[in-house]
Amino acid sequence: MREAPPRHRLVPLGGTMDGPLARGRFGDYGGRYVPESLAEACREVDEAFREAWADPGFRAALVRLLAVHAGRPTPLTPAERMSEALGVRLYLKREDLTHTGSHKINNVLGQALLAVRMGRRRLIAETGAGQHGVATATAAALLGLEATVFMGERDIERQALNVFRMRMLGAEVVPVTTGSRTLKDATSEAMRHWVGATADSHYCVGSVIGPDPYPWMVREFQRVIGEEARGQCAAELRTGVPDYVVACVGGGSNAAGTFAGFADTSARLVGVEAEGGAGAARGRLGVLHGCRSLFLQDGDGQIVQAHSIAAGLDYPGVGPEHAHLRDLGRARYVTVTDEEAAEAAVRLARAEGIVPALESAHALAWVIGAARGGELPAGSTVLMTLSGRGDKDVSTLKELL
Ligand SMILES: *Cc1c(COP(=O)(O)O)cnc(C)c1O
Q1: Distance in Å, CA 359 to ligand 1 centroid
Q2: How far away, in angstroms, is 310 Cα from ligand 1 center?
């Protein structure tokens, strides 16, 4: 048997997973690569967020909304039958049990409260599969704001249920007909639209991407996942801290929020990307959507379209803080194929009675493969964030049964 990793060793991170470094940088990554009109709007968001985050009244209002509306705290579920089969001790942080069915609501409620504090009357958002759009429409309805959601025409065709939910909640869904007519184009279009609407609208970014302050602001709003899990692990595990902390990575918000709770411990952090959307594992330095990070590119530096069975992982890049964590060696980024993820989803359903989102199933597929291959030593404790529930994926999964 391999030697157990040292416990509770403090890892010097130079401010990472805390604030950003100067000028919104995470090492070589991050920044604010936007036109001057948006740079001013980003400065306003930055200032308002720092003030709000230091205000106990704002924090208390958010904690209350997360409790009474979103259903926090979410449980930590020991996956008993799965653990026995794998020879490790697997615990699931259940973001699938939040209102609207994924971790997206944590960030959106925070940004919606911030928008109200800033005197904005409307939220602008981009969405791929529609999960972030639905969360944004939900928060807008709850707080009496308007919502305009940009969505690629192809995604609108593929995600009819979420389009209906957004409209039911009173949001305007704007079809994007440029480029590949998917998430990357919807994000570009939302940013373009914000240029002319900064005075009365807040741009509600859905992951730890985009110009400063979004990557670290969104991580702070998702930190609740990691902090709750840290406390739950302290109560549940003999050692207090799991050996491994695992989460799927699209832009990287559920992983960033989870990692933030364990960055200062001995836990090994593992981010799992889709084979066809592996920004952290295989991307190159570039600038997209206002931020310098790792993106999938062709020989000419053009951004390559991502492909994944999980719409939420269908982004060609990764948030700047993940790129930095990778360089520091503090987190590892690995990939999983569509087939492995789909298989893991079915396996979790049948072993634990939980149908996971295909995004979350990527994280599980890595755990299964690593336990089988001996990379996870027998008896290891593993905390995995189950970022969402699988209802949205039924039509995809149906074909695989
Ligand atoms: C959007 C989404 C993801 C990917 O986004 P991150 O910012 O990487 O967390 C993962 N899981 C679910 C269920 C999602 O809806």
Answers
A1: 6
A2: 9
